[in-house]
Amino acid sequence: MAGQARGAEWPTPAPNSYVVDVNVELGGRTPLHYAADSGQFDTLAFLLSKGANINATDRHGITPLLSAIYEGHLTCVRLLLSEGADRNVKGPDGLSCFEAAGSPEIKELLK
């Protein structure tokens, strides 16, 4: 039978199925931050396909895009930009994404 709460009904999850919050914070950061920070392109793409908040800020005010920029992960930066990441954010140091980029290739993407 379906679950009930205050008159609402929702389907009971199938056996061996799980509901996962892709925006849950751990250590003040989301899974998207960790994936962007470590250059995990496939994980980044998967999380985005599951509705991860592309412009989430961590406890320092850093977005996944800034994380990827700081670490020089070109393919991750390209993916985040193509999926609509805000390129106009500034880091906690006040630098724009463009100013924070150390790579000429990343700077070119941010123009």
UniProtKB/TrEMBL annotation:
Keywords of the record: ANK repeat, Repeat
TM annotation in the entry: none
One Pfam match: Ank_2
ANK-type repeats, residues: 27-59, 60-92
UniProt xrefs under PROSITE patterns: ANK_REP_REGION, ANK_REPEAT
InterPro entries the UniProt entry points to: Ankyrin_rpt, Ankyrin_rpt-contain_sf
Gene3D superfamilies: Ankyrin repeat-containing domain (1.25.40.20)
Protein's UniProt name: Myotrophin
Species in which this protein is naturally found: Callorhinchus milii (Ghost shark)
